[in-house]
Design a protein that fits this description.
182 residues, archaeoglobus fulgidus dsm 4304 fold, 7 strands, 29% helix, globular
Length: 182
């Protein structure tokens, strides 16, 4: 005799958490794209690193922006899955990366936890919400997803589980582990 049951279905698709961080010497940069499903379970992990040129011809802020854009483009090209939404940390990715250097055909969100509430860059739409009990500012491009959209249902599911910001930490831990092995 079988037991009657019904599987609980979660919103489909994945959310991609992007980290772009400088290495110890300042010329080495590392990046990772960690995709999770609506339960926060890993779906895909992509990582890369690059060395910046030592040149007096580059202004430091331009070199940082170029490094971030180069890593992001490489990670997007290497990813096998297409996420529903990309989230990155506002303190790691400037608005110009997605506003002037890379055009993405899906919602991109720069996230800033409480205490680090940046102003929206050109073309970004701010959204303030609670991630558990922590206020979070989300800076969306091109717009905040509609409440009925798959992107919003996915983020609401992650937020309901306390996983709106937590995958950023796993992304960094995975990046450190992957580069230590390589």
């Amino acid at each position: 005799m079988s037991v009657p049951f019904r599987a609980t279905l979660e919103p489909g698709g994945s959310a991609a958490y992007l980290r772009v961080v400088p290495g110890g010497a300042g010329r080495a940069w590392r990046g990772a794209l960690f995709q999770v499903d609506a339960r926060g379970e890993p779906v895909e992990f992509t990582f890369s690193h690059l060395e910046l040129p030592a040149s007096a011809l580059w202004r430091p802020q331009d070199l940082r922006r170029r490094a971030a854009a180069g890593l992001v483009m490489g990670l997007f090209e290497a990813a096998r899955r297409t996420p529903l939404v990309v989230l990155c940390r506002a303190d790691e990715v400037e608005p110009a990366v997605f506003g002037e250097m890379i055009e993405v055909q899906l919602p991109v969100c720069r996230a800033a936890p409480a205490g680090a509430e940046p102003e929206a860059g050109p073309g970004e739409v701010p959204q303030d919400l609670l991630a558990g009990t922590v206020p979070v500012r989300l800076l969306w491009r091109p717009a905040v997803p509609n409440p009925a959209s798959p992107q919003r249902r996915l983020l609401d599911s992650l937020n309901g589980r306390g996983l709106l910001l937590e995958p950023f930490e796993r992304t960094l831990a995975g990046l450190e582990e992957a580069l230590a092995v390589g």
